[in-house]
Amino acid sequence: MNQFVIADAQKCIGCRTCEIACAVAHAGGDSATLRSTHFFPRLKVIKNANVSVPVLCHQCENAPCAAVCPQDALVRDRNGIQVIQSRCIGCKSCVIACPFGAINVVIRESGQEDEPHRTLRSEAHKCDLCAGVAAGPSCVRVCPTAALRLVTPDELQRRVHEKQLRSARGNGDIRLL
Questions:
Q1: What are the residue boundaries of the structural domains of the chain, listed by start?
Q2: pLDDT score for 78
Q3: What is the C-alpha separation between 83 and 105, in angstroms, rounded?
Q4: Are 81 and 65 spatial neighbours (Cβ–Cβ below 8 Å)?
Q5: Residue ranges of the 4Fe-4S ferredoxin-type domain (predicted)?
Q6: Is the pTM of this model over 0.70?
Q7: What CATH number does the domain located at 4-168 have?
Q8: How far is 58 from 6, CA to CA, in rounded Å?
C-alpha cells in the first residue's frame, strides 16, 4: 500500500506556502532559480468563496494515469507513482485519466541557458512525495496550519480501525482522516 499526502480543507488557509516549498524542492532547493516561467509546483491550491485546499496526487494503487501512458513514463516505486521524464512525450493522457486533476503537463526549455538554440519540451508533473528528499514531502513540513499530512499505510489502517470502532458504537464519523 502506498503512502500519500492528504489535505484538510478545514485547516487550509490558502497561503500557497506548500506550492512554493514544492517548487523550491524540485528546483534543487535553490529559490534563487525560481522565476514565473520556471515555477512548477507539483500540487495546486484551489480556492473559491467557501474553501481552499491543495490538490495533489493520491499515489493510487491502481493508478489510471500509469495505465494509460503509452510510453510507460509513469511507474510505481517505493515512493508511489513516479514520472520518468525521459520517457514522457507530453501527450496528456495521464492528465485526462487522473480522477483528482493532480497531474499537469508543463512546457520547459531544454538545454543550457547560454545555448542559442534551446528547445521546448512538454513534461508531466505530479507529486512525487519529494522522492530523494530525506525529510519527506516539503509541503507537509512547511504548512503553517498542519493542513497537509503524510499518511502511511500503518496510519491509514489505524484510522480505519478507529472509524470502525466508532461506527460499531453508533458514533459514526464521516471525516476523511
A1: 4-168
A2: 84
A3: 11
A4: yes
A5: 2-32, 79-108
A6: yes
A7: 3.30.70.20
A8: 8
